[in-house]
Fold these 3 entries.
Entry 1:
Amino acid sequence: MSQIRETAADTGVWPLLRRERTWSPWRLGIALATAAAATWCYLIGEYAGYYLNFFQGSLALTAGGMIGMLLVLLAAGPTCIRFGIESVASTKPQFGSKGWVIPGLMQMLSIIGWNAMLLIFFAKSLTQLLSVLGWLPVGFGTMQIVPFTTLIACAIVFFVLLWGASGVTHLSNILVAHVFVGFWMLYLLVSQRWPDLVAAKPALAHADPVWNYTTGVEIGICSLLSWWAYIGALVRMAPDARKVAVPVMVGMGLPVPLLSLIGMAGILVLKNSDPSSWLRNVGGHLYAIVALSFVAAANFGTAIAGIYASAIGLRNFRRLEKLPWIVVLLVTIMPVAFLGVFVPELVFNKFGTILALVGVCFAPLCGIQIADYYILRRRRIDIRAIYETRPGSRYYFWGGVNPAAVIALLVGIVLYVYLLNPLTYESHGLYRFLTASLPTTLLSALVYIAITRLIVAPAGRGDYPESN
């Protein structure tokens, strides 16, 4: 076993050199597909299945998923791929040499929430698997086993990630098989229950069919916007920017909506989105064991990618930058372990809220980054300035914070909440035609452009072309 490299490039926040970026498009696509195909797909499909039938839901989720993935790729992708940096570092030209803490906290909270839910899902599936196999001790149930199995999952993730990006890719090469198992489960349900699936009616469908379809698209967009937090840490490992778009859109953009159809079909026909529950009725204990094994594998791939991305993002904090990788990993995993051990049901039951809050935060962030890179900076970024924090540096703005980005982010959040309440799903205005994420992305971009051109650039702050 090779020695663990605590100072390896892929465990640091500094830009990767081309020779250090060793992932081919195929290798990147496998890592992205493995990360994307988590069991949150079933919950995504379940939520869409409340409002749409199978055919409508398939179209809405696929359209929304591809739109969301495209926004993420356009926002964080260019800077991360071009310079070999991760998502949080890519926000410094917009938010400032200190203001990046805002998207940094957004990334950390998002990944903690998602990974806590995934590892709790893993723990529940492992407990069910032990029960099916007859290995669960007498008198022990889910409440007693889930905290323990969550800790086991966190420990496995920790040890795998001691090898940095190498741990991510080696495990992805093994776990990618679960993506095909997921499609097999979908085929099994669709082929055996097709008449029921065609006839199934969504339980919570709105009287307005346009609203239902828009909500399905919105669910798809929000689901993929969550990948902003992950994308930079993975795509920065690829040396050729021209060959990244296809692995990202196909490897990460498509699996989520397609595998979500498992949960959608399950909730429409069997009133249960979890395949580990309904597959036992279809094929007995053998199929149940396959499904539970699939669920466990699916969650591991995403959790490892997420915790790796979060740990790299935390390196932007000066106090964590020089700490050994093992310490940064512990800091990253501990909040996930805490939630999984002490409040697993609270996290698991708040999936819809977590999903909506992702759209609230990341839709305006994507708009700001897209406007800044393509329109205001005309694709010109100073990589050295990203790592300069002294007063007067190019991305210092005022006190290290760019007020244009903060204001545009807040305006976007207010608009999103007005259009779609993330807690109640009560909507207003033009939501039924435009979704909430798309107008939010656009308005945040326009506000950011206006403030930058009227105030920031004329003041000579931010190194914009107009100020030179």
Entry 2:
Amino acid sequence: MRSPRSPRLAILILATIALAAASMSSASALVLREQADAGIWNFDGPAGSGIWASAQYSSPTHGDILFVGGKFTRAREYPVGTPGGGVVNGLSGLAAIDMDTGAAIPGFKPLVTGVGPQKNEVHAVAVVGHTLYVGGQFGAIDGQSHYNLAAIDIVKALDGNAQTPAVISSFDTVVGVPGASNEKSFFVYEILPGANDLYIGGSFSKVDGKGRAKAAKIGLDGTLQNAWKVTQVNGAIRDMEFSADGATIFVAGAFSTFRGVPRVAITRVSAVDGLLDAWQPASGAVQTGSNGKMTCWDVEATATRLFAGCGRGPNYAMALRLDNGTSGTRTFSYGTPGNVQAVRVAADGDLFIGGHFGTNLGYPGNPICSSRPDGARRLKAFGILHNVQGTGDAESIECSFLPQFWGPNGFGGVWEIQVTPSNVWVMGEFHEINCPGGLGQCENQWLLARFSPVA
């Protein structure tokens, strides 16, 4: 699923935003408006369009930028059906947003193309220095052959000069097997930047022709690192996250065995060699369906907790202890009527959750927060959870901030969350936000939205 929080100071930054809790008394607390900010550009494209990955970057010439990846072909100042405004055509699942204005940067439009049965989608982006690393399912960028993983010189790409190619040709790692009968099943879902290298996760069995079970470590120059390796992983890896000390990596996905031993949806490995760490979720901590399977889509680690968003029936956000020796006992589990696909934890203990819970127009969801002045409201795709540290009080939803998301895909919703000191950016597969009087009275906003504090 999932691209990393980049830069990884997001945990600290979130503290200035998730103080939106009405129950908090600090005078400096920021209370987010339920209404999405006006002026943020929209994205659209073929059926199944969405934004699934993002990364932040500060440019000396363009200011703060949000790179987004997914499946889309156009950026528009106004939503589809509203005439006028600026338009950037010719996009192919990769774009750059001016974070001050919310507008797409027209000069940044690398051409991402697929080969054979490939879907031509971007599922992971990460920034290291002035390089943008891109993962997904594709065969070339700007005409250069790059199979499911590529590197782009950000400065050259923002310049938009076709005479100075931005794609870094020397970074030519091949993830998967070009031309294989199962070629359409190879994806890079995650890029986790290390100090001098990248960890990638997804659905593949080979990297540069060598066996790699759903994960690999690669130098910033594209060289496969042989010292780090995981084996016998029987399901896709969706997210990877460093522990607080950087010595280990938490891995989440759709697997039930890892290195040949039982590990359902979540495990922990060494950042040095990929061997299993002694820590693991306690027995039963990762809830599964009757088939014993689960997919955890996103994880976020602090020094004492691992937060996870999971769903495959049952669906939930949860936290596992990291301060209880080698046993990751569960401190809370908050059930939802659909997958939790994104989690972001704040230093004060609050947790942003995003997913497709309740986004289907035909699904009534779960009315909550009856104390609101406007009556009970449904939790639809995005919210803030309190009391998630397991310190006594039961977890609860922040009732003053319940934006509602709808879209053509009932299994879409929110896939990605990014933050700044004063905003929350939300991405996914949605076309409308907040319909107080029912459909037809919504905020039309496609695939990308931003929320700001109450003035």
Entry 3:
Amino acid sequence: MTGRVAFNADFGTNRRIGSHECEVKDRTGGQGKNAPGVGFALPEVSVGPGEGKRSVRKEMDDIPAANPFIGRAVAHSALNLCRLDGVIRHAKELILADLPNDLTKVVYLASLRDCNTGHYFHPQISHQNDSTSASHALRLCHEEVFARLMAMPLSEYVTQLGGYICYAHADEARVIDTWKSLAAYRATVPVKASALDAEFFFGSVEAALIVLDARRLGTL
């Protein structure tokens, strides 16, 4: 044994009859045994004694060892996401579920935000969780609700603004006049909202105020 293996297969008269022979006959006009020979040869493969094992061992040695720090970082990140998801669910159940609509929720969530730092604080949620996680969860809730408002038509803004006034048990005329003069609703958008989304929100609220005021005065 020299360790050299050669393979050669000729399609001659001793080959088995099969679909390939049919194809050969078709191409040769059905000449059968008188057809010129068709040969097929596999390339020679040379494998020295032990070369295969050494090659595989070398490739295995080249695989870098797993970094334990990366694994711990991924696990820590996954744990933080699970905790954050729990805080978000808690916030939705505790403070958002009872609010009548998304416009009211945006106004309320914005009231939990410090205008100087952008940090959110809620008496129960922030004390039951670490303040950073609570602020992050409330911010994500704020952004989620605001995103829904971006898909809302003007008629729904009118309906939800009326619902907000009823929920606040406030005088409609006073709320409309105050919102028009102070434009406090401009401070209710999330910090990361784009300028285009913010202007869409402002314009929709201002139009809703005009519609409600016109209805109140009987001019619409």
